[in-house]
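[stage:ingest] chain + small molecule (iron/sulfur cluster)
[stage:ingest] validated
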Amino acid sequence: MKFFIKTYGCQMNVRDSQSVEVLLERHGLERARSEAQADLIIVNTCSVRGKAEDKAIGKLGILAASKREHPERLVGAMGCMVQRLRESLFERVPKLDFAVGTRRFASIPAILDFIQSGQKHVLDVGTEDENFEALTGHEEGALSAFVNVLFGCDRRCAYCIVPDVRGREWSRPGESIVQEVTSLARSGVKEVTLLGQSVMMYGRRNPVWPDESRSPRGFVEPFIRLLEAVCGIEGIRRVRFTSSHPSGCTAELAEAMKALPALCPHLHLPLQSGSDRVLKRMRRGYLSADYRAAVERLRDAVPELAITTDIIVGFPSETAAEFEETRTFMETIGFDNAFVFKYSPRPGTPAAAWEDDVSDDEKLRRNKVLLDDQDQRGRRLNEQLVGNVVEVMVEGESLRNSARWSGRSRTNKIVVFDPVPGCEVGDLIRVRIDRAMPQTLYGSIEKG
Ligand code: 5AD
Ligand code: SF4
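[stage:predict] done
[stage:export] C-alpha cells:
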C-alpha cells in the first residue's frame, strides 16, 4: 500500500506529517511519489484562518470524489481542522474514511488497521495519553530537520484558534530531545529548528531537566538550557527555533546568543500590531515598549540579529490611525521580513464575539501597504550587506535558475551564487554579497 500526505499550514504541521510518514513506513506502507499513485491519501489540515480551512475542505472533497475512479483508495484527514470540526467534518466530506486530531497521530497505524477490518468513518480526537515518543522518526538523508520540543499553547490570544485545537502546553523531556538531535546529527543533519507554538515557554509547565542537574554554563531557564545542550551536540552547526514571544527574550537568551556559536542570529518574533490599544485587545501580554525592549536587549548582545515577524491587519475595531501606528513601529524595529495576514474570525475565540468591522477591501489595502513597506525596507536592509561575506549552507540548485545555486545565511536569508567545482549540498561556504533584492541576496563564493 502506498501513501501520500498533503500538508497545509505551519512548520509544526510539516513536522507532524514527516513523523506520520515514518510511522506509516514502519507499519509496512510505502511512500508514493505523487498523490495519483497513492492508495492512501492523508490531508494534514490547518485552522488558523478561514481560508486555510476552505483549502483543506476543497482538497478533501476532490480526493473523496476521486474514489469513484479509485474505489480502493482511502482518504483521511489529520490535524487542527479535525480537532475543531470533529464529527461535523464527516458531514462536510461524507466519503472521508478517517479523521485524527492533533494529539492522536501515533494511533494512525492502528486506525488504518481498524478501517481495513471494515470500520467506517473513524474519528479520534482524544487529548489524553498521546505517545509523543512514537513521533520522533525522521527520513534519512536530510541536511536540516525540524524537532518538536513543545506541544500546544496556553497563551490564549483573543484571535487565535491554536490553544483550542492544539491543547495544553506540554514540553518534551530535555534528554529525549537531545537523543533525537544526536541521532539526527549522526545521520548527517547539520541544522535543526526547534519547534513550539510559543517555544520559549519550554519547560515552564512541566519539568524537563532532572532537579539536581546543572547546565555547563550555569543557565537556569529551561529553554536556554535546551539551546545550550542542542548547540553542544557534535555535528550540529546551526540551531534555530520558532516561534518566539517578547517575554522569552531574556538576558539569558541574549547571553546564549552571544556564547553559543551554533545558535543562529535570527528571531521570528510575531508582533501582530504596533498599537497598544489593539495589542491589549488581542491579549498579547506585551505593549509596543516591551517588544522594543526585548529587541534591544538581544540586539545589544548580537548586533547582526535578523528579526522577522507576523502582523494581523483589520483586527476588530482597528482604526486607520492604529494601523498607521503599526506601520511606524515596523519601521522603528526594522524588520528583515514580515508575514501579513488579514484578520479572520475563528469560531469560539474571544475576538469572534466582536464585530468583524474592518471591511475586506480595507484589510486588503492595509495588507498591501505593509507588504510594500516591507519590500522597500527589506531591500534597504539587504543592500547594507553588499560587500560583506556571509556563511551560507548550500542547499542546491536555485529555484528560479538551475545554473545558479542557493543556500541560507545564518540570519536565514536566501543567498544565490554560482557553484564552483567541488561545492556540495550541505557545505558551509563563504559568499561575498554583490547584489541585494528584498528577499534574496546574490554573491560569489570566496576562496579559502
Ligand atoms: N486571523 C488572521 N491571522 C491570524 N493568525 C493567527 N490567528 C489569526 C486569525 N484569526 C496569524 C498570526 C500568527 C500567524 C501564525 O497567523 O499572525 O502569528
Ligand atoms: Fe496563537 Fe501564538 Fe498566541 Fe499561541 S502564542 S495563542 S499560537 S498567536
